[in-house]
Amino acid sequence: MATVSLDNVRKVYPDGQLAIAGASFDIGDGELLVLVGPSGCGKTTLLRMIAGLETVSAGTLRIGGRVVNDVAPKDRDIAMVFQNYALYPHMTVAENLGFSLRLRGTPRAEIAQRVDEIARLLELEQRLDARPAALSGGQRQRVALGRAMVRQPAVFLLDEPLSNLDARLRQSMRVEIARLHRRFGTTTVYVTHDQVEAMTLGQRIVVLDRGAIQQIDTPMKLYECPANLFVAGFLGSPAMNLLRGTLHAGDGLALATAGGTIPLGAPPQMDALDGWRDREVILGLRPEDLHPLAADDPAAALEARLEVLEPVGNEVILHLRHGDLPLVARTPPGIACAPGETMHLGIALQRLHFFDPRDGARIG
Ligand code: ATP
C-alpha cells in the first residue's frame, strides 16, 4: 500500500512565514495527483514535506499508513525528481541511472539489468555512455525520471519536472509521464504551476492559493464546477469571463452589468439564486459558452464589438467589448466578422456559473 495521507498538515517557516495553513487530503494507492497553483502558493513546500526535506510544523503525514512526520527522507521509500534534474555531471547516463541501486548494495548484474530495462523504456539505450553535458534537455529529463524510477519507490514526487523544456518537448514528456504512470501504477504527486499540465496529467488536482487548498477534484469537475472565483479564473485558457452585475428577475433572470443588461432565461441554478434577486453577483461564462449568432437570431442575448480576432488553427479566439466590459469567446474557424464590427452572441444558459462577490464562493 502506498497511499499518502495528510491530516491538517501545516508549515510555518522559522521566519514566521505561514506556507501551508492546514492541508487535509488522501492520495490513493497508484493515483497521480497534481498540486497546482500560482507562484508562492505553497506547492513545493507541501511536496518537500511529503519527501521529508522540510519538517511538518503541525498535523500528521502518513505514507502507506505509517506516520512519517519524523522519518528521514531515505527511509520513506520515495523518489523525487527536481526541476533542475540534479544529475551527477561526472557520471555517464548508465552510472547516473544505477547510482541509487549501487548505494543500496544491489548486485552488479541486477543493476545492469535494471538500468538496461529503464534505458530501453525511456529510449536512452544509445546514450548510456554519454555524460549529462552532452545530452539534450529532453534526454536529461528522461535520465532524471529514469534515475527515480529504477529504484521502484512506493511514491514518486515530481517538482515542476518539465519547466526547463521548450513547449514541444514539454508536451511529449507529458505524454511520456502519463504512459509511465499507466505502466507502473506508482503513486505520484506532481507539482506544477501550469494549468494545462495539471488538467492533462492529473487524475485529481489539488488547487492551492496562498497556502490554502481551494478545491480538490477531477480535472473535469474543477472545470465544470469551480468552487470559487480563484479556481474559476485559474483553470481554463482563455480564462473564464467574470461579469459583475445585479441579478433581476422578471420574465426570466437578467444581469444588469456596466455594459448593459444580459438576459439569462431560466438557468438550472434558479433555486440557488432565489435569495440573490436585486443583489450583486458575479456571472462566470467560459469563452466556449459564448456563441456568435446572426443578428436576427432570437437566441442572441447580447451585442459586443469585436476588437481582436486570434486564429489559432482549429478555433478562433474573439476579444470583444460589451459596453465597457471585455469579453472573450472561442468559436470554430471561418467566422465572417472583422475588428470594429458588432457581433451578436448567444449564451449557453445550461453552463453558467454564479459567484458571491463578497468572498468569491460559488452560489451555483
Ligand atoms: P513556486 O512555484 O514559485 O516555486 P510554490 O507554490 O512552490 O512557489 P513555495 O516555494 O512552497 O511556493 O513557497 C510558499 C511560501 O513559503 C512563499 O511565500 C515562500 O516565500 C515561502 N517560503 C518558501 N521557502 C521558505 C523558506 N525556506 N523560508 C521562509 N519562507 C519560505
From TrEMBL:
InterPro entries reported for this sequence: AAA+_ATPase, ABC_transporter-like_ATP-bd, ABC_transporter-like_CS, ABC_transpr_MalK-like, ABC_transpr_MalK/UgpC-like, Mo/tungstate-bd_C_term_dom, NA-bd_OB-fold, OB_MalK-like
Coiled coil: none
GO CC term (a single one): ATP-binding cassette (ABC) transporter complex
Keyword annotations from UniProtKB, A to Z: ATP-binding, Nucleotide-binding, Transport
PROSITE patterns per the UniProt record, alphabetical: ABC_TRANSPORTER_1, ABC_TRANSPORTER_2
Gene Ontology terms describing biological process: carbohydrate transport
Nucleotide-binding in keyword set: yes
Nucleotide-binding as UniProt keyword: yes
SMART domains in the record: AAA (SM00382)
Pfam families registered for this protein in UniProt: ABC_tran, OB_MalK
Positions of the ABC transporter domain: 4-235
Alphabetized GO MF terms: ABC-type transporter activity; ATP binding; ATP hydrolysis activity
Protein name: Sulfate ABC transporter ATP-binding subunit CysA
Annotated source species: Dorcoceras hygrometricum
Taxonomy of the source species: Eukaryota, Viridiplantae, Streptophyta, Embryophyta, Tracheophyta
